[in-house]
Design brief:
By secondary structure, the protein is an all-alpha fold. It has twelve helices and no strands. The two termini are 18 Å apart.
Amino acid sequence: MNKKNNNIKLTVKLKETPLEIYCHTVYKFFGRKALLNKKFNFFFFNHFYNKRYETILRKANLKLIPEEYFFSILFSMMFLTVFALFSSIIFFFLNQLIAFFIFYGGILLISGSGIFLYNYPLVISKNRKDEIDASMPYLLPYMKILSKELNLSKIIEIIDGFLIYQEVKNEFQKIKYYSTILGYDIHSSIREAMLSCPSQSLSDVMNDLVTISNSGGDIYGYLSRKLENLNQEIDAIEKKNIDTLLIYSQIYVVILLIAPLFYTIMTSILNLIDFNSIGTAGVSTGSTFYSILVLLLALPFVYTGFMMLVYYSKPLYSRLQPIKDD
């Protein structure tokens, strides 16, 4: 039964994203051959390649080497450039206006694609960091409970089955990969896995645990102090969030409740005065109807936008979604 579960976990771990499949394929069929050319190799590594992305790709949990990723970006931009030029030349003889839009639209698409792909690992790494940091209030209490009776190796082994938040679970699976597959000891596994961890908070905690475990220190006492400091930070964040929500509630009452009601009443009163003075409702009644109709159509979207603003103003740790069981 255990072997079956391990095989399932390994299969899930090795599953590649569409981006990784695309980059692997492009590099396999085009990149390796192109980089054999000395002139292209010089241009690629001196003007396009960025060595620091090796760490960024690992922190983004993308199973790619920088050569694969950057060649795929360059290949995509070249392909889009050729496609835009070819399409604009064809349409030039049919409709010059369409050819103009295709050419300049292609330039915008190429620029946008290049910027997006270049910054994509940075964004993913930042999102992973935020989610791991937000998981710390749920991770530390459980580690503290386990550390009262168990050593560090056993804590890592047990806690992987407890974690319900994907990104922090991925980091602990890296530790298990280094220890069970590559044969590292638990301390080396943790240090090696934390090199590619985007969260400085988790890295600091795990590295401190390794140091304490090596020196025979009190892991339970360390986690207790760390959790106490974290709870103080959470209290400060919650107080700040309450102040923010109080401001939002005042905005909601004044702008989204009182203002539409006041506008409707004043419009009705003014139209009633106009009706009494002129003797006919005419355009005034029609304008009142359309004003109220606009309010009825616009307010649901405004209320929805306000609810989203309130929701996303909450700290991330209160919005984390657990892993769904298949």
